Amino acid sequence: MQKKPLLGLTLSELQSVVKNLGMPGFAAKQIASWLYDKKVTSIDEMSNLSLKHREYLNDVYEIGAEAPIDAMRSIDGTVKYLYRVGEGRFIEAVYIPDEDRATLCVSSQVGCKMDCKFCMTGKQGFTANLTANQIINQISSLPERDKLTNVVFMGMGEPLDNLDEVLKALEVMTASYGYSWSPKRITLSTVGLRKGLQRFIEESDCHLAISLHTPVPLQRRELMPAEKAFSITEIVELLRNYDFSKQRRLSFEYIVFKGVNDSMLYAKELMKLLRGLDCRINLIRFHAIPGVDLEGSEMETMVGLRDYFTSHGLFATIRASRGEDIFAACGMLSTAKQEENKQELI
Q1: Using the 8-state DSSP alphabet, how is residue 145 labeled?
Q2: Which position among 45, 62, 92, 112 bears the catalytic label?
Q3: pLDDT tens digit sequence for 222-272
Q4: For this structure, is 330 an active site residue?
Q5: What pLDDT, on a 0 to 100 scale, did the predictor assign at position 290?
Q6: Are 228 and 235 in contact (CB under 8 A)?
Q7: Is 0.90 topped by the overall pTM?
Q8: What is the pLDDT, as a whole number, of residue 192?
């Protein structure tokens, strides 16, 4: 019988585990402490559980921590880690150190259904949702885990398309029994799915980033097919119902494509779209991917856009480009590994 993972279980789920095994209720918090505070690698290390109870756990469960199977290191310190998540399935997590910050970009799915034109993960198609165990494992098994200051759900997959498991992972990360992180240390990025956006805002206090990339709905539909189901104008109207003026931050991500969305015409339309909304805009350089006829804009153009937004009252930043000397675009390393596996099977 394949054992079930403990890592990634919420306190209520651990309470069910100990109840089903005939263990005392307080053992749930003890197990949570071993998993998330002491970060043990085996059940046998849980020394304040009786030997009998450890045996009960070992019969059915395991810690469920899986170290990355590969890594690519950039000259700027960025490290892209490859994790195995089942037979022939792989995901990526990217560690980004930057002076007094260290950010981990985590994945929420194997592949993605959204099929955004500029995204390598979308070219894979969708394979599976990650479990809370597989999401938390990207943090727990990270060699640099003790240096982390921030986590962003900006890796492979659409987090709102796997919201139940993502919310469990967020609970583990922010709860006192788990990692005890402030929600301000976590950002979730989404194309903006109707079924999950409102729920995420109401059930979590983490920062929210919307993949925007153009204020023109018809053009956004070409770049991001999800626009057909839930338009950017509808997303913005929904967001207007919530208060983002306090601790929680709302941002819009805008990859700047040369000759596509980088003129002042687009900047002015974006200002109209976001007028009155308490938010910021993150301008992002495009990392080229195979088979996609899009180019990144020159830095001079991006600086011009940033200065325009800032001078008109919209806080704007240019996200520093990291890891360009490795497989920088999300999904490229896992795609290469899956192709390698296919060739081995032929």
Answers
A1: G
A2: 92
A3: 999 999 999 999 999 999 999 998 889 999 999 999 999 999 999 999 999
A4: yes
A5: 86
A6: no
A7: yes
A8: 95
